[in-house]
Amino acid sequence: MVFIYLLAFILLVGGWIWFIYLKEKEKQYSILIVVSMSSPFLLFSVAIKLAENTGSNSAIFSSYSLLMILIANSILLNLTIFLVSLKKK
């Protein structure tokens, strides 16, 4: 499960770093939006399979908690992208 937590942390921090990079370079955010919305579900599916193989109920709860955190982060990131795009126009 440590790998899953590390991957979730990379997704949380990496999304915002990528957003800052794209904002400074004034590039499009379309790939970032797709990645930020799909990556929580991909990570969740991997975490559930790992929890299923280990037979741990707490791992299933942790996977679901990470999914909710990553979805909230994705929504916040996409909302920020939307507001920045509106501000440019």
Structural class: mainly alpha
Beta-strand percentage?
under 5%
For the terminal residues, how far apart are their CA atoms?
A: 44 Å
- Topology pattern, helix = H, strand = E: HHH
Let me know the largest β-sheet. none
Which shape, going by the Cα principal axes? Answer: elongated
Query: Unreliable segments (pLDDT under 50, ≥5 consecutive)?
Result: none
Mean pLDDT reading: 93
Number of extended strands: 0
Q: Work out the radius of gyration.
A: 15 Å
Explain how this protein is built.
With 89 residues, the protein is mostly helical. Helix content is 91%, strand content 0%. The protein is built from 3 helices and no strands. It has helices spanning 2-25, 30-54, 57-88. Helix 2 runs antiparallel to helix 3 (57-88). It is elongated, with a radius of gyration of 15 Å. The model has no long low-confidence stretch (mean pLDDT 93).
